[in-house]
Amino acid sequence: MSEQDFYSQYLKPEEREERDAAGVPPEPIDTGARPHNGVEPRDAHTDPRMPVVDPYAAAPPSQAPPAPPSQAPPAPPPQAPLARPPQPPPGRPPVDYPPAAPPNPAPAPPGAGRHALGAPGEPGVPAPPSQAGGYPPPGAEQPAPPSAPRPPAGWAPLPPQPPAWPARGGESVGPMQAQVRQADLVRPYKPSPESGWRKRLYKSTRINLGPGASEREWNDLHRRLKVNLRGTYVIAVLQQKGGVSKTTTTLGIGAALAKYRSDKVAAMDANPASGNLAKRINEPSTGTWRTLLTDPNLHSYSDFRHHLGIDTSSGLEVLAGDPGDAVLTGRELVMAWQRMARVYPVVLLDCGNQMRDDITAAVLSMADAVVVASTTRYDGAEAAQQTLNWLISHGYPGLVREAVMVISNVNKITPTKAVRNLHEGFERVVRAVHDIPYDPHLSDATAIDFNRLAPATRRAFIEAAASVSDGFVKAADKDPGYRPQWPEQGEGWR
Fold first, then answer.
1. Which of 345, 405, 418, 431 is nearest to 378 (CA)?
2. Among 37, 166, 357, 403, which residue's CB has the most CB atoms within a 10 Å radius?
3. Residue 171 has what pLDDT?
4. CATH number of the domain located at residue range(s) 231-480 in this protein
5. What is the arithmetic mean of pLDDT over 148-163?
6. Is residue 397's pLDDT more than 70?
7. Average pLDDT over residues 410-416
8. Looking at residues 255-261, what average pLDDT do you find?
9. In 378-485, which ranges are continuous DSSP H helix?
10. Domain ranges of the chain
11. First and final CA of the chain: distance in angstroms?
12. C-alpha angle 401/402/403, rounded to 5°?
């Protein structure tokens, strides 16, 4: 006997007709197995796309109207027994399924499905767990997604901002950049030697060993001498004692700069007592600083060239002092330099012996660098020490820190421990110290020919000039208004 016939024998004929007319499905038989939807329950951790709901959750109470007490339960249709849901994997807590439905549950609404259980809160039906996984039963309401926090009152979204750069067809380059390395395409260049046995070997066998260590050092000196200069640069050669080779140092450093640089380099006699700077070049001029100041037609380089002499061996030009009774003043020195600066970006000043006069004040107001001359004798070294200390105590510590010391061996002595100690003592104060060896051509007190100097002497002056030119890089950072202005008669320079 089928289950439908079994239940039908206990119903009255009119009850069976009412049941068939209403289309009420028969109640299922409790077979002891848990009903499900034909789909294995999924864990929320294995399928992140599904909401976290209990697959066997019951419909809400509002959708389940209570059954009439007098109506008997209808006979269920034949139904195959359902298998139990799969067991959870080891190490994961089992899903807490709700208990079985009571013998006479209320009929479920049409949208709830055939296998819907009782609603949460009803007797015998526990609340669904919050972390159960799987798909919800057909017809069951989906939990509402968590709502976004509401903005505070009075808040309004910002208007859309235009892009910083106009978009071009939605293209995005990102961090990529094209890179082409010269070493991958061009063979590295090895310069040919220009001196020594390497040069002879290269000329005879075409075997290029490259420059040696001494030649590379020489090329580095040339590179330092040729560094670019922006604006003008004034180099003051100071010492408060005479006979310490200030003029020789001025001509040696000036000749090295003029020989290896492409711009014009000039030296100016800043000794108020009319020094002998112009007498130490082979082509002096009859012009002086006075003729330069009184010339109203200074428009081109040739106009200036008329007043200056020149050392033909290096190209250094020299503005001589006035041999008359007129004494050079600080105001006239500033005015003469301002005119020369139109043509000569690098100017060396051969100063006198007095540190407290009008000339020295004007020189220090214009100077970008200081070269302190000294000798290996004690009196010359002591005077150099006093000059540095005077500069520090009178507000010029920056000039001392960047100063270059030049020690000339005028007595033809062999370097001793005392000379080395003198050298080390000055290095603790100034930026660089250079020794000029004894040279008979310098001791003659005649016109200096740079090409006639001994190789060691010429190399020493080139190294000292390279140390001076190292300061050219900082010339671009100078304030254009720091230079002294043209003072009026009776006024000091500013």
1. 418
2. 403
3. 61
4. 3.40.50.300
5. 67
6. yes
7. 74
8. 95
9. 378-393, 397-401, 417-427, 440-443, 455-469
10. 193-225, 231-480
11. 128
12. 95
